[in-house]
Amino acid sequence: MSSTFDEHLIGQSSGKTPTGAAATIIDADQTNFMADVVEASRGIPVLVDFWAPWCGPCKQLTPVLEKVIRAAGGRVRLVKVDVEANQALAAQLGQLGLPLQSIPLVVAFWKGQVLDLFQGAQPESEVRRFVESLLKLAGDVMPATEILAAARQALADGHADQAAGLFSQLLEAEPESPEAWGGMIRALIALNEPEAAQDASAQVPAKLDSHPEITGARAALALHAEGAKAASELETLRQQSAAAPDDFDLRLKLAAALNGAGERAEAANTLLDILRKDRNWNDGAAKTELLRFFEAWGHTDPDTLAARRKLSSLLFS
């Protein structure tokens, strides 16, 4: 593809360093398309937004593109081409196979070649996925992806304060990130700041309420509140449960107290013991509570995975 572009458009390049070469968002025309798009894409992924002043969907899409590109922190360039003002260029590109008869059209260039494209106005989430895929193919990631990974690692390593700072930084860049909101709530729980976690939960955009990251974090917050009270009675519950091992109501309370004290594996095993003796007790209350633990801990958490394997073995044995 790059050789085809070179053959047809190379005559339009001045051979000089393109104006605004270091800029993240620029406009292009017949004179600088080769330099600012094709040649520039050999070092950085380039998105080209083909638009026109009369195009309503274009006016919706361009601000979304600009927002996502700015969030990419200079790792992707956006070049805007007004096809109405650059009809000769549009005609040339159309002859090379780009479907410019329908705009808005966004074309991704990498290493001098067309890598991917999409047509029509798209929501921010889809544009972000498109850019993330482009960066992945280019061997890079969005800065937000790096921040999220660092925040999750800090939380997993027990550095909740550091994690909270990173999640806050991520929320400044992406205020509608369910991963950032869920992580912030979990970090505040880990810092034993339930009121702050509750405040964060209340600030989550309503459209994210059903996202697994949010429902899981809120489940963790609810369990934290229940467990904090039960944990104060942990030793008493241990003794009572040991004296009455078949009192499943007591063992259910013990599981909550263990979870509240951070003893997840023992909490899960306490519920699994109930299931081994009577999986249908109280309409499956032990299984329901265990699944609630899984949601609160996170479905990829090591404690969840270990307990889930035991649950599967028990149910399907």
TrEMBL record:
- The reply on keyword Aminoacyl-tRNA synthetase is no
The record's annotation in Gene3D superfamilies points to: Glutaredoxin, Tetratricopeptide repeat domain
Looking at the UniProt record for this protein, which Gene Ontology cellular component terms does it annotate, in alphabetical order?
Answer: cytosol
Tell me which Gene Ontology terms the entry assigns under biological process: cell redox homeostasis; response to stress
Residues covered by the Thioredoxin domain: 17-136
Q: Which UniProt keywords apply?
A: Disulfide bond, Electron transport, Redox-active center, Transport
In terms of InterPro entries, this protein maps to:
Thioredoxin-like_sf, Thioredoxin_CS, Thioredoxin_domain, TPR-like_helical_dom_sf
- This protein's source sits in the domain of life called Bacteria
Q: Which CDD domains match?
A: ybbN (cd02956)
Q: Which GO terms describe its molecular function?
A: protein-disulfide reductase activity
Do you know which PANTHER family this protein is assigned to? GEO12009P1
Q: Provide the protein name.
A: Thioredoxin
Q: Which organism is it from?
A: Gluconobacter oxydans NBRC 3293
